[in-house]
Amino acid sequence: MDAAAYGDELVVAYATHTLSFSGTLFDVDAMVVWRVFDGRLREAWDIPAINTVRLHEPETK
């Protein structure tokens, strides 16, 4: 995951989420935005890039 702060309240992150639907695993890219104020998480948005949905490919090391 890559994350960066913007201004005093916003943190934006990029991640690839893996989800299961009818027993099949899929990956989807998403942006996550957190609004932090007074040291506490106040709001969060998860924005999937639906055109990036693809069959899950396990990571190999």
List the helices and strands and how they pair.
Elements (H helix, E strand, L loop, with lengths): L1 E5 L3 E12 L2 E14 L2 E9 L5 E2 L6
Antiparallel strand pairs: 1-2, 2-3, 3-4, 3-5
| DSSP strand content | over 45%
Percentage of residues assigned to helices:
under 10%
Unreliable stretches (pLDDT < 50, length at least 5) are none
pLDDT averaged over residues = 92
Measured distance between first and last alpha carbons: 17 Å
Q: How would the global form be characterised?
A: elongated
- Count of spatially separate domains: 1
**Biggest sheet record:** 5 strands, antiparallel
Q: Tell me the number of strands.
A: 5
* DSSP summary: helix tally: 0
SSE series = EEEEE
- Spatial extent as radius of gyration: 14 Å
State the secondary-structure class.
mainly beta
Structure description:
By secondary structure, the chain is mainly beta. It has one domain. Helix content is 0%, strand content 69%. It is built from no helices and 5 strands. Strands 1, 2, 3, 4 and 5 form a 5-stranded antiparallel sheet that branches. A hairpin with a 2-residue loop joins strand 3 and strand 4. The mean pLDDT is 92.
Summarize the structure.
The chain has 61 residues and is mostly beta strands. The protein has one domain. The chain has strands at residues 2-6, 10-21, 24-37, 40-48, 54-55.
